[in-house]
Write a structure and sequence with these properties.
The complex is a heterodimer of chains A (307) and B (559). With 307 residues, chain A is mainly α. Chain A has helices at residues 2-12, 14-37, 47-57, 68-87, 103-124, 128-159, 164-173, 176-179, 181-194, 206-209, 219-244, 251-271, 277-306. In chain B, a hairpin with a 2-residue loop joins strand 13 and strand 14 (468-476). Classes of the chains: A mainly alpha (307), B alpha+beta (559).
Chain lengths: 307, 559
């Protein structure tokens, strides 16, 4: 009986639907802000939802030479990865649904699942654009993943725990953004890399490779990837806010904090020119990774000294 | 050097090959040579650093004369030397190639082969450049006996073979439909990982048969036809055509009309360069600059609409003058717009020269040295950004450019950054010149009468379009329409440099490199009307006219 209830709650998963909807609203806020920065009017608030409904209702075209299982399976895996990561994250200021020692690492790997699925989908796509897009997606993954991980390890080490819940409780009394400014900047920019937002949008640079890895996707598959991405936007922003901007606390204030991060991201998106893939990799390993490592070193030394 | 000494020099250089010289116009020298002497005559000109190959005009002189005529136009300053070659009017007469000496000639020679059926011996690429793939073999549109019935589509042949995947290398096709291209063209880039190892291109997707069509229309109708070659530099084409026709008809255009033409040319340059700035920024992934520059471009578009009534095909030029006068109110509007635009252009100049993230994508990318620019035959801002001082408005001032000269902008660096800088500075010059002309607009007539029939003769008129030199060769037989009209637009000459410079760069730089020369596809593609099998949309002229009248009547009906 218990199993059936659990299964039903997973199948209907009201939190999941609200998560998807909030992801769309965040996506809208991002698009609207960028549009206003670029002196455009921007989309209406329901535009991401309308796009998704339209995509879901459209025909899904499958190229001849692809592997069926991968082609239909990857979007689902990508979305479920992002949704599962949400279970361990304080979404919208609410305490995480599940929590265990070391869930930080699990959540981060679940977040990477989307990029890996995109890469696989591009490799499976049998189109030259998607192949190049996939190569770029995965190259970029190797570039930002380590610095991003290190930047989130900083607060974890300061709090002395690997549980997201405990770190955010610790962060409520310690504003990491002031204590670890370098880690915050690296995490913020890593977030943009993770979401392939400009200037890190080389994997889907439309002027070179059309839509990158997802060029061959249409209809349902594309919609699922898009939903996965907007869920990831919410999860990752929540994670960075909880770690660096004073924990969870009041949901309303938490929401405001996430919006401030979104505002910063939108500003960076409209100010910068797209980086070539070699420039992205160079930047992350030359500066991002080193800065994050330096941060960790300082934390270790300080902790030893204080103890 | 003056034009006379330049022509004198050319006469001396070409003396060993000459079968007869004449001077059709004061700035032109015509040298008749044997086809077999062509490579050595070209080499003599090149060795003496005399000019660059501007265009090749192929003409069928008809059954009576029973000859084909090829004109190789070389330009230096205001002087033009044409090598005239007569070929027998049989199928596939031979002419030696010169593209081993002048790479850009390769495009012209491909055109010779497909349009006139001349066999160019030794040309590196004889595949089709403009004609569609299903065009039948052995049918040459520029031959006198050509008719549309001969051009019934055949089974398409593969003109661009797949370069195929070899190891890590494979081919990335860009176009004819691709988000990077705002107009249709087809490029194949062989890439090794992200590095380009080879590049090819194919044009002709927007061919409309304009050159051929001019022979069937009278002098006045042609003005409106030629205006529609390009949506960006429509005024360039009307100016070049009107200048040539007026020279042939010996019509003296009033100074006020010339000044107004120069104002519109300046405004056209502003709207073209701002459009380019937006497109180039978008290719680099800097959409904010794209949105900003296109917003400001609306200022000049609105101004053009105020002055001429149209945003794109201004239609202000008529043969013998201009159509509309500028009043004091117009002058005020121009001043206001120029003040605003100058401020904005200074801001963009600041952005493209200082924004660190943008400079990462432009500084040192696609660097073309002065020697390379000369060798590839680059034109316009692309050439000037490599330090090549080539600008028709200065080398060979036409129209009102004697009275209201512009200053030459060059840059030594030759990379993409230099091209941005040169174009933005040119806009500042344009703003300044437009203000000067508006304040000193000469009084007088707007237009003089243009005869219906133009005396026989031939002329060359060159105009500096926003993208470089536009070349017009016009030949009149004394009738109501031209006998031959040859147009060579600047983009065609710049392709060689863009494709050659792409090799060795990253795929991510390609859109920027292509955008860097500001390509314009529709002005490359002018020549052929295509009629396909089972095409229910083929309309006759009268059906088309009727359709247009009905359509516009329905638009104007009150709802």
């Amino acid at each position: 009986m218990n199993t059936i209830v659990s299964l039903l709650s997973i199948m209907f998963f009201p939190v999941g639907i609200s998560l998807i909807l909030s992801g769309m609203l965040y996506e809208w806020a991002d698009r609207k802000l960028v549009a206003r920065f670029q002196n455009r009017i921007g989309p209406r608030w329901f535009q991401p939802l309308a796009d998704t409904i339209k995509l879901l209702s459209k025909e899904e075209i499958k190229p001849h030479s692809v592997n069926n299982l991968l082609f239909y399976g990857l979007p689902i895996v990508a979305l479920s990865g992002a949704l599962t990561a949400a279970l361990y994250t304080p979404i919208l200021g609410f305490a995480p649904t599940y929590s265990f020692q070391g869930d930080l690492i699990v959540a981060l790997y679940l977040l990477s699942l989307l990029t890996m699925c995109t890469g696989l989908a591009g490799w499976n796509g049998a189109s030259r654009f998607s192949l190049i897009g996939a190569t770029r997606s995965l190259t970029q993954l190797f570039a930002y993943e380590a610095p991003f991980l290190l930047a989130l390890l900083g607060p974890a080490m300061a709090a002395g725990t690997w549980t997201i819940k405990d770190i955010s409780v610790y962060a409520e009394n310690h504003w990491m953004f002031i204590a670890q400014p370098v880690g915050f900047v690296v995490a913020l920019i890593g977030l943009m890399g993770k979401l392939e937002l400009p200037p890190f949008d080389a994997p889907e640079a439309e002027t070179e490779i059309v839509a990158g890895a997802l060029t061959e996707y249409s209809g349902r598959g594309l919609a699922l990837f898009h939903i996965g991405k907007s869920v990831e936007l919410v999860v990752a922003i929540s994670l960075v806010t909880a770690f660096y901007l004073g924990g969870v606390g009041n949901p309303l204030i938490f929401l405001l904090k996430t919006l401030i991060i979104l505002l910063f991201m939108a500003m960076l998106q409209s100010m910068l020119t797209r980086l070539r893939i070699d420039q992205t990799v160079g930047m992350w390993w030359r500066f991002g990774a080193l800065l994050a490592l330096l941060q960790i070193l300082v934390i270790i030394l300080l902790k030893g000294w204080l103890a | 050097m003056t034009t006379e000494t330049l022509l004198q020099r050319a006469t001396e250089i070409l003396a060993p090959f000459s079968k007869g010289n004449n001077n059709p116009e004061t700035n032109r020298l015509d040298v008749e040579i044997e086809a077999s002497d062509l490579p050595s005559a070209t080499a003599a000109l090149m060795d003496n650093q005399w000019g660059y190959l501007s265009a090749i005009t192929p003409t069928d002189l008809g059954k009576e004369v029973n000859k084909l005529e090829l004109l190789y136009h070389f330009c230096e300053g205001a002087a033009i030397t044409s090598l005239r070659i007569y070929l027998p009017r049989e199928d596939q007469p031979d002419v030696p190639t010169i593209s081993d000496q002048i790479p850009v000639a390769s495009f012209f020679e491909r055109e010779l082969g497909e349009m006139l059926g001349v066999h160019v011996v030794g040309t590196p690429d004889s595949s089709r450049l403009f004609l569609p793939d299903d065009w039948p073999d052995g049918v040459y549109p520029l031959r006198e006996e050509f008719s549309m019935e001969q051009a019934a589509p055949v089974e398409p042949r593969e003109t661009l073979p797949e370069m195929g995947r070899v190891g890590n290398k494979f081919t990335v096709p860009i176009g004819p439909q691709h988000p990077a291209l705002k107009e249709p063209g087809h490029f194949e880039f062989a890439v090794d990982g992200e590095i380009i190892t080879g590049a090819r291109m194919r044009l002709g997707y927007v061919h409309r048969g304009i050159e051929k069509a001019t022979e069937k229309r009278n002098w006045i109708q042609n003005l409106y036809l030629l205006e529609r070659i390009c949506g960006i530099c429509s005024h360039t084409h009307t100016s070049a055509y009107a200048m040539g026709a007026e020279k042939l008809a010996q019509v003296e255009v009033p100074p006020r009309a010339l000044a107004i033409r120069e104002i519109v040319a300046g405004l056209e340059r502003i709207h073209s360069h701002l459009l380019w700035l937006g497109v180039a920024a978008h290719e680099a992934g800097f959409d904010t600059l794209f949105m900003y520059s296109w917003r400001d471009r609306e200022t000049v578009m609105d101004l053009l609409e105020t002055l001429t009534g149209n945003r794109v095909n201004y239609s202000i030029t008529v043969l013998g003058g201009v159509k509309y006068d500028f009043t004091a109110e117009h002058s005020r509007a121009i001043h206001k717009a120029m003040n605003y635009l100058e401020e904005r252009i200074r801001y963009y100049l600041h952005i493209v020269t200082t924004d660190a993230s943008f400079l990462q994508r432009t500084r040192g990318i696609g660097t073309m040295t002065l020697e390379e620019a000369k060798y590839f035959g680059a034109l316009g801002p692309t050439a000037r950004a490599s330090g090549l001082e080539r600008d028709v408005r200065i080398d060979s001032p036409y129209g009102a450019y004697h009275r209201f000269p512009v200053s030459l902008i060059t840059d030594e660096r030759g990379d993409l950054e230099a091209r941005f800088e040169v174009r933005m500075k040119e806009l500042l010059v344009s703003c300044f010149t437009i203000r000067t002309i508006v304040d000193n607009l000469p009084p007088g007539e707007l237009a003089v009468r243009f005869p219906r029939k133009v005396p026989a003769g031939e002329t060359v008129s060159r105009v500096e379009a926003p993208r470089g030199e536009a070349f017009y060769y016009i030949k009149s037989g004394g009738g109501e329409s031209p006998v031959r009209l040859k147009i060579r637009t600047p983009s065609l000459c710049n392709w060689t440099s863009a494709l050659n410079k792409a090799v060795g760069h990253q795929l991510a730089d390609v859109p920027m490199l292509i955008a860097g020369m500001d390509p314009c596809f529709s002005c490359n593609d002018r020549m052929i009307t295509v009629r396909r099998k089972n095409d229910s949309h083929t309309l006759t002229w009268s059906q088309m006219r009727e359709y247009g009248i009905k359509k516009y009547a329905s638009i104007r009906e009150p709802k």
